[in-house]
Amino acid sequence: MAVVMLRITCSTISSGSPIHMSQAPEPDGGDFPTPLPWLARAGTAPYIPGHFSELIDNLTALLKDIDADPLVDRTFTWPGAASPVSLRQVLHYMGNCGLFTRGGRPSRVLLTPGARHFLDTGEVDYLTAVLHAHVRFFGETLKVIGEGLTYDELNHIAVDSYGLNWKSLDQVRRRVHWMRGTGMVEYWTNGKIAPTKDGVALLSRLSLVRPSDLESQRQAAGLAAELPEIPRLLAERLNEVTEEELQARKRVLGYIAGGANMTALSRLVDAATASLSRSEFIQFSVEVFEVSKSSAEQSLNTLQSLDLMVQVGPDQFAATDLAAEWFTSGEAVDLIRHLHLNLALLGETLEALESESDSGTLTAILAERYPTSGLTRKDVTARVALLVEAGLAERIGNVTRRTALGTALAGSLPLQQHHDAHQVSALSLACTVATENGQSLPLPERLAAEVVSSSTDSANYQRFERALAEAFRYLGADVEVHSGPAKTDMVVTLWLSPASRRRIAVEAKTDGAGLVTDQDVKFMRLSKHRARHHADHTVLIGPGFDTWVSQEADKEGVAVLTAKQLAEAVVRHSETPLYPHELVALLLAGQADALEHTWSETERRTEAMALVVNAMWKSANDPADIEFGAGALDVRDIWRETKASLDTPLDKKEIEEALAFLSSPCVAGVLERGGDHAITAPPELIALRLRSLASAIETKAVGTDSRWNTAANAIAESSNSLPGGLPMPNSSSNDIEPAQVRAWAKAEGRPVNTRGRLPESLIREYRRALHLSTD
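RE: above sequence
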């Protein structure tokens, strides 16, 4: 199959925005390599064990060993070491230092021209230049030392002047270790590092970055930039996109063969320009990107969901008109414009980068502006990576900021409205907000939207109370609504253990301006309300609180919770449920950090489970892995396969816990063979079995006097009074034909038992779907 030459090169995009290559160009002779742009260099210096005097010999031994045997999956023994170590681990500690390239199956490592030049000549100044070209603050370390600096002084300069955000001396020590090993600096007994004559001579040959250069880059980010002209079809599509369509965009980017990058997408779109069959697309992806057939199939699904490919026949696929238009223009900005139409909050992420932010801060900003979006930190990181590659954003240490081109694009895209920029009625939220399957928002999102919206409806305070009651029932609490003079608005009871309950008095305050003040809260009454209803604690809930209210609440031991915080908890609970003894921290004063820790740990266990399953399934369908190890992985293999997916890689205990659960007889998704583990079924079937277990537990619970079943029924019954919400039919199953429910559930991909009593929750979902389709 012929592949057209890519219009997007590895060095620049036609708009002039840089795409940073993974390795700087290397010369044929003794000239020093050209340094990568500062932001494209590695922040971590390579590590080699041993005394600095052994560094060159150890590095030479490593390079010779790799030159003789490039296979990665083997061991390597450092000179003088008692035992071998994994070569993969050695390469991990070396990082992106410009001495190695990776590729091929089975995985191989090759020497770069720079590494080979050093190995042939032994020139330590050339080695230093190679490292300087690929590692930040390497040659600059030699420059700022001047006549002598201590490690602390050197670290302060790296942090204050070069923005490296280091928390320890480890990185400056590594750089000095290399400089001492190559004879460029020496260590004095007074604790200072000073340059040698060789070091001073080398400085004149290095191209160095100055702090003023970085500052000018920061200032340049605020300058205006000219956007490339937008193609006709794409311009029409962006002009006609609606708010509902923006809200309905998909959250997860999905898997793409070759990675979610411009080059891979360009090759895939190019291959599909003239139409090809499913088998041809899979064969192309396998041959070009060296992925498994199942991964290629998954990639095809992703490209369709992003509107880059479309099915044009019984088994034929082609690039969409918009995708072909982007490929013709060759503009990375046009790809971002196109993806913005299909990927939730892509342009909104760019807008949120008005100041330098790390991924955690950016995730929090987006969650505050779009509380029902559900973007995880991983989702946000994937979006930032796309923006960085397109030249719309750039990384500085651990933070990211918009470029001038990014600022221009953010101001030109149709963006989803901020949550605080408009007040959408509950009827609109319940009936017209579309999702991917064309249905209205599911219950958690509707509850969350109603909690926030009703908190500012000061003319109808009972609406806010009803919304709170429904939200607490959804969180698994019993709710007693009281209201009225000399009474608390409601009391929620959380079941902590067979012998323990926690009763919490809830005081609900609405305010049309969104801020509850000291005129609205009488703290002296709160303790009386608490005693009257035999409650243990009090929580004050409203749209927002002024400083005085927050200070007095701290003094009185009253928890303060905004409507937005409760709404976020409802949505988060729908994705990662917590037990009542864990959620009680939401309603207690001073427990926010403990709740966040619990939620983060639970979410991480869930993500660990997914990563382990997917890593094992990938290995089980990889011909090279099957030949090498029968598709089975040990804990270390799984760690290696998943470490790039998380900011903090999984540790051994997390992987072992996931494997133990998956290996249990009830799940039987993993089979242990000695120290290795092999997956026994596709991930979709493992998930289906887990759903069947959940369905079985829920079915049995229906017939019991379960407070959680009572709470669930109360949600459905009270939904009749949800302002603007859709009236729910009676939750009784007497007038429901079980066969119809089972047929609907199977069509929706929902697990359902073939006989016996149907779960009430499934019947409620069926009634909601039925009502929506006939409304």
